[in-house]
Amino acid sequence: MFLIGLIIVGLILTAIYIANVGDASHKYRPILNWILYGIAGLNLMLGSSALLSGLSGRVETLTAADGRGAFALAVITSGIALFAISAPDFRRMLQRVIGTGGSYDPDSNMHLAAFVLAITGVSANLILFILGGGISGLASDIADTGITLNGVIFQNLIWVALAVFGVGLWIRRDLKATIDRLGLNTFTPRNIIAGLVGVVAGIGFIILAGIAMQMLLQPDVLQQQQAASEALVQQFNSVSMAFFVAVAVGIGEEILFRGAVQPVFGNLMTSLLFTVIHTQYTLTPATLIIFVVSLGLGYLRKHYGTASAIVAHIGYDFFQLAAAVLIGNVVMGGAS
């Protein structure tokens, strides 16, 4: 499994490098297509593995229906990736769908690579979620393996690396141009205040949404759908850890999604991608909440820069994590 993961990471980094070099020299790089074909093929292989596991019953938490669903997802996403790679007309259609909200260029090697990596990455993430037993399986995995601050920081360093490498640091852009492209040159008092306003708006929205979910859903259904989120929150035992996790996640995710991805694919498509990668909310009403929050962060990115989105994301996450820690401490204290 480690070797497979290493191969996949190598393919991704190679694809990003070749795409950037191709755009820098304004040349089409045929080898990029073959690497992207390989990545789409790996996605299809993962879906096929899920199908076989579901049909054979080898995985206790995976039903035949789950396997067929995972395989269908792999076929659809790999098919879309193949169309994007081989059909210029498809890429031009994608440009029209994104519209003026993004700067997607159907002739760009890097934009093609980004689209294929995004759609196959989403597919693989969902298939692994299905293979792991869905929300209950994810909750059990989080409870068993735990969440460490070092692990969170490492994950978000990967997001930052993908962002700066993806926009072509020291290939198509120098350091200053990379910072400008990622919207990290926007740490002004006005933009920070806008981010703080975003924190207040996000907190207000999540409170109202939580009340609505409590009213509309049965308690047992609500508990089942929030299992993974609750298991995740329970890993934090101090306000200081909650703060550092919020900072790491806010910086990492915003630099990648709002800084690097959104200017190309627009707020709507970026928010769809952002929502799907948060598998602890997959197929629950909270999915809609995350999507709306992402649209709000995208609005801040567009009008006030990535700095505002980072501030809002950190404040939004810290409020929820710190509240969970404090409430948990009160409950434990009362129980003793």
Protein traits:
336 residues, mainly alpha, 2 domains, 14 helices, globular, disordered C terminus
Structural class: mainly alpha
**Strand count:** 0
Low-confidence stretches: 330-336
Largest sheet: none
Termini gap: 44 Å
Order of helices and strands: HHHHHHHHHHHHHH
Shape: globular
Radius of gyration: 21 Å
Helix percent band: over 70%
H/I helix tally:
14
Average pLDDT works out at 87
Strand coverage percent: under 5%
Could you say how many structural domains there are in total?
Answer: 2
Describe this structure in words.
The protein is an all-alpha fold. The chain has 2 domains: 1-132; 171-336, no CATH class. The protein has 14 helices and no strands. The protein starts with a helix and ends with a helix. The relative contact order is 0.11.
Concise structural overview:
The protein has helices spanning 2-25, 30-56, 64-86, 88-98, 109-131, 134-145, 149-166, 175-181, 189-216, 219-225, 227-233, 239-277, 286-304, 306-335. With 336 residues, it is mainly alpha-helical. It is globular, with a radius of gyration of 21 Å.
Reconstruct the topology from this structure:
Layout: H1 2-25, H2 30-56, H3 64-86, H4 88-98, H5 109-131, H6 134-145, H7 149-166, H8 175-181, H9 189-216, H10 219-225, H11 227-233, H12 239-277, H13 286-304, H14 306-335
